[in-house]
Design goal:
single chain; alpha/beta; Rossmann fold; 2 domains; seven-stranded mixed beta sheet; globular; binds nicotinamide-adenine-dinucleotide
């Protein structure tokens, strides 16, 4: 089975899908791996390092045409679907809820597409969970960005020149990214508070040494996959009222609240931001999925009339591309190894398997994923 890995062409993408360590594992398992020339240049990996671990180097057009399996980070551009080998398996992030046309084109061309966003959240699938591996790094990056921009230091400092109080950091949304943001801000010495609508999170926040902000929203809860449920408009308003007080006292507010497959909830409205201190830094991690912060703009840093800076940068894991690539690559090799048949040296697409069932979007010419099929 020929596994082909393509260079990322999405503007500003700095990650690569596979690193030599993963090539080594796949080749030892009996796979043939071919990578596009320059694949790892963005993270300082030369073609020769891929060759040393057993990969061949080829052109993009040859890989598209010949590979039985294609790996990449970002979704394929629509014009690169038709050139793919019919029946090939394509694995990448896909954004399937917003890419109806692309999904239809993949089905039409008989490509079996595995969407990395759709890997189920089960214990067995944890090692393949790229949403989590990348969110973890994104959470770290949000804090580093804020720390660099804040005109204050994070830790408590007691010196002959006086005492400096620790910075106050408020993290909204304490999932994978939010928990890493809490841990990172704590390590830098900040005083950290956090809020999430899922009550189970309280203990995790406290175990990292942060304070959980109590806001009584009534019934909230989570899905079987551990994702937050949408709030009613009344609950959302209650949440905003509860958060406003904490935001006014904070030096940094980081929002990471997402709703799987849907637009992110708007949590920080213009009214709340208008009450915040000048110099406060807001990092909106959800900016790419609609934004948690009113007025945040993708890839911009907006300063409000009252001097609050809103950072809305995209692709946060791409800012630590070496480790993001390393983790994504491990997610991919773990996924491939899980379904690798050692005798035939091929990837067995077992459509009855619960992980494959969850993440497979198109197969044998049709859209097979129930969630994606039901998008209006
Ligand atoms: P996510 O990226 O979908 O959302 C981030 C956080 O935002 C979540 O904690 C969510 O509850 C929160 N949120 C949503 N609406 C909010 C609002 N109005 N206000 C405040 N917060 C809001 O979620 P995620 O980080 O990918 O993961 C969610 C949970 O799933 C986590 O608890 C994580 O530990 C768990 N998880 C489990 C597995 C597994 O079992 N294999 C894998 C990954 C994640």
């Amino acid at each position: 089975m020929l596994i082909g890995v393509l260079k990322e062409i999405y503007l500003g993408e700095t990650r690569c899908a596979l690193i030599p360590l993963s090539v080594d594992r796949l080749v030892k398992g009996g796979a043939q791996v071919t990578v596009e020339s320059g694949l790892g240049a963005c993270v300082g990996i030369f073609d020769s390092e891929y060759q040393k671990t057993g990969a061949s180097i080829d052109s993009r057009s040859n890989i598209l045409k010949n590979a039985d399996m294609i790996l990449r980070v970002r979704k394929p551009p629509i014009e690169e679907v038709a050139p793919l080998k019919k029946g090939c398996i394509h694995i990448s992030f896909l954004d399937p809820f917003n890419e109806k046309t692309l999904v239809a084109e993949l089905a039409k061309n008989n490509i079996s597409v595995i969407s990395m966003e759709m890997i189920p959240r089960t214990t067995r699938a944890q090692k393949m969970d790229a949403l989590s591996s990348q969110a973890n790094l994104a959470g770290y990056v949000t804090v580093i960005l804020a720390a660099e921009r804040l005109p204050k230091i994070f830790p408590l400092l007691m010196t002959p020149a006086g005492t400096i109080q620790p910075a106050r950091v408020f993290i909204i949304g304490a999932g994978v990214a939010g928990l890493q943001a809490i841990a990172t801000a704590k390590r830098l010495g900040a005083r950290v508070e956090a809020f999430d609508t899922r009550p189970v999170v309280k203990e995790q926040v406290q175990s990292l040494g942060a304070k959980f902000v109590e806001i009584d929203l009534g019934e909230t809860g989570q899905t079987t996959q551990g994702y937050a449920k949408s709030l009613t408009p009344e609950q959302l308003q209650k949440q905003r009222n509860g958060m406003a007080r904490v935001c006014m006292q904070s030096d940094v507010v980081i929002t990471t609240a997402q709703l799987f497959g849907r637009k992110a909830p708007v949590l920080l409205t213009k009214d709340i931001i208008a009450q915040m201190k000048p110099g406060t830094i807001i990092v909106d991690m959800a900016v790419e999925s609609g934004g948690n912060v009113e007025g945040s703009k993708v890839n911009e840093e907006v300063t409000t009339a009252n001097g609050v800076r809103i950072i809305g940068l995209d692709n946060l894991p791409g800012r630590v591309a070496v480790h993001a690539s390393q983790m994504y690559s491990a997610n991919l090799h773990n996924l491939i190894e899980e379904y690798w048949d050692k005798d035939s040296k091929t990837f067995k697409l077992n459509i009855e398997d619960e992980i494959i069932k969850g993440a497979l979007i198109t197969h044998q010419g049709t859209v097979v994923n129930e969630m994606v099929k039901n998008i209006k």
